[in-house]
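Incident log, structure service

09:12 report received: a user says their structure output differs between two submissions of the same chain.
09:20 pulled the input from the user's history:
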Amino acid sequence: MKSAQARLSLGLVMAIAVGLLVGVSPAVRAEERNADSPCSNATLNGSYGFYRTGSTPAGPLVAIGLLSFDGKGNSTVIQNISRNGEFEFDVTFPGLYGVAADCTGKGFTPEGVEFVRLVVVDNGKGFYIFSESHGNAIYGVGTKIHTDR
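09:34 re-ran on a clean worker, output below:
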């Protein structure tokens, strides 16, 4: 049970991180990309279901939620979290993200503080995240649900 909770927390942190990245590559519509095209902020576009899990100074973390990317470096997350058995539901916050041409990225708070690293996979159909800030060791996975219009 603790292992599943840890994975869920890490997934959420990763998803949030992705949502907060500041991109440096030219924008390309995700639907128009092919396997040889570079990634950009536009590669993450639409809604993604995610989980994250790991450890925090407060204890094990597990979370699930929805992360929406606008393809331009802005994101919004809504998540349900368990930290050391204490639950929070429908936690919502905005973020920033950036995706480099090699499909790696970073997530930032609205104030510009980096909190997560990510890798975009399968032409934007998913991502992996990792965060080790503030005593956390959290990883997560996100999967595309649909493209926002």
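09:41 both user submissions now match this output. Likely a transient worker issue. Closing.
09:42 reviewer note: The mean pLDDT is 82. Helices lie at 2-19.
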